[in-house]
Amino acid sequence: xxxxxxxxxxxxxxxxxxxxxxxxxxxxxxxxxxxxxxxxxxxxxxxxxxxxxxxxxxxxxxxxxxxxxxxxxxxxxxxxxxxxxxxxxxxxxxxxxxxxxxxxxxxxxxxxxxxxxxxxxxxxxxxxxxxxxxxxxxxxxxxxxxxxxxxxxxxxxxxxxxxxxxxxxxxxxxxxxxxxxxxxxxxxxxxxxxxxxxxxxxxxxxxxxxxxxxxxxxxxxxxxxxxxxxxxxxxxxxxxxxxxxxxxxxxxxxxxxxxxxxxxxxxxxxxxxxxxxxxxxxxxxxxxxxxxxxxxxxxxxxxxxxxxxxxxxxxxxxxxxxxxxxxxxxxxxxxxxxxxxxxxxxxxxxxxxxxxxxxxxxxxxxxxxxxxxxxxxxxxxxxxxxxxxxxxxxxxxxxxxxxxx
Length: 405
What we know:
flat, 6-stranded mixed beta sheet
């Protein structure tokens, strides 16, 4: 029996998305793997007889994982069993090399979210990178808050501009103007996160990555110049005030960069699972809510690992948000050139009534930007965003190959 999952043979089928005029269920489906690894319990038994040997699929037990751990010298204690089961659930081969990497990264950590984020970073071929582990944990713990992060950064950028202006008597005018221009440029580009109907189907990965790179450069600039600037200011009060603003701006830039990294990490597919649907992931402020919260956006990538760009003429977009009036709502938009098919997903019956009353306006708004709404559907379900971005196996439904003489 072998519980390792070779990357070249491991396959998983994630929740399907509606395509063109037909809706396909977004509920979690079973997963299949090559016969050399793990298989779903719903699959039919496959028996092959070669001379006196018979192979069949059967549900695996904890004893199977225990035996696999023992095969490479690991005690099947509670912690090791937990690591092994989490590895299998995310498709990571249960072998000595991967186990030891994960075990070492878990030193000093005990929570299930720590373990999941570490295993996911391995699955996404990020080699257990510390930053990627941190942001994955935030996502799994529902702590990813772009709206609050961007708002804080904008406030600190404005405070930095004001502090520089107040301290201009002790600074070079040319330097002050140069720094103010940089701050203004960063602040303007942060408007990228505002939801614009005209651009909602045209998110550019390059623009997103470019803003993160510019933020990194600006952070390096601030860290390199703060002490030099402060020594030019003679007034102790102004010096201390400017120092505090510099520190707050640096911290908010670091947090923003971490959040931006999270979206790149979550948009990266698993090296062990080949999904039917791959997505780029973003968050933008949800201006429909009061107070403003986050709106999750997923846009389907081409199903080709050599080409992770968005096909703007044929793609699927998922928008998930929540407001006080309609609760949680997920909108799946199928895009075929200039034709749109909307599927509204909600567990609240009242939401359907509210959305139905808004559909005529939606059709007019889309026509105004040269899109034709071909169909509108309603589904009584929730969209599993986490499962789409971080697909995993249901361990209760997996089987393994058993060989009997």
